[in-house]
Amino acid sequence: MELYMPRTVIISGASKGIGKETARVFAAAGDQVVVFDVDREKGEGFCREEKAAGRKVDFSAVDITNTENVRSAVEKAANQYGGVDVLVNCAGILDLHSFSETTEEVWDRVMGINLKGAFLLSQAVLPFMSKNKSGRIINIASSAGRTGGVKTGVSYSVSKAGIIGLTKTLARMAAPDKVTVNCIAPGTTNTDMARQFSSEDTEAILRQVPLHSLVEPEDIARAVYFLASDSAKMITGICLDINGGIYMG
Ligand SMILES: NC(=O)c1ccc[n+]([C@@H]2O[C@H](COP(=O)([O-])OP(=O)(O)OC[C@H]3O[C@@H](n4cnc5c(N)ncnc54)[C@H](O)[C@@H]3O)[C@@H](O)[C@H]2O)c1
């Protein structure tokens, strides 16, 4: 039997939702997970639960829009655990403003968290991966970035289209160092974020989903784990659609 080599995995936005489920999947496999999130209470609570179950999940208070905060937290994690093997850029916020009501502040906040945050984290982590000539970056985009969004605001859809662009650009740049970069575009997924839609809007979205159900966080978590696995070593620059068929790439 082959021995499993535990990895160090940084996951942003893992205090809840898709990121938390992804953290659970990696931790259950024996990896060291570091949760980067602004929600200390939820994040620390989650880490306590995981540790009590014998798994290795630590919390780091990080606002991914803050360059210094990101750099020092990545450096600390890399020193503490001997490098960074996997980065999952999952933190994000939803925007439901209409086009005409999208203020500059809304646009900047959504771009800051959803797009700049993933850029800053990738930039901070990449040198550690390049040094090892190995690494995986998995970004969480959205079907809104593929379709323009059924009910989401313009800043959200554009930030997620940007994540797809960032993924492809970085995949080319990091390939010489044997680092793969991919993204997943989830459809409406059963988390607090999707609960911001009214029930009428959720029904309107589901009517357009051929499989007619919400994606579960675990559906995304397992795909992230696959993209970080050896089985995916020749996959880079892709956007994997997991959405019940609302967008078929
Ligand atoms: N739920 C959906 O329907 C859906 C669909 C497609 C894509 N996505 C994407 O999946 C990702 C996860 O979404 P979710 O549904 O789990 O959302 P969620 O709201 O449940 O969790 C988001 C997490 O990000 C964290 N976060 C927010 N701002 C942050 C910041 N500045 N720094 C660090 N952490 C921050 C929050 O504290 C929270 O823990 C997001 O990028 C989202 O856009 C979600």
Automatic annotation (TrEMBL):
GO BP, one annotated term: monocarboxylic acid metabolic process
Classification via SMART domains: PKS_KR
Taxonomic superkingdom: Bacteria
Name under which the protein is recorded: Ketoreductase domain-containing protein
InterPro entries: KR_dom, NAD(P)-bd_dom_sf, Sc_DH/Rdtase_CS, SDR, SDR_fam
Alphabetical list of Pfam families matching this protein: adh_short_C2
All residue ranges annotated as the Ketoreductase domain in the record: 7-167
Family: Belongs to the short-chain dehydrogenases/reductases (SDR) family.
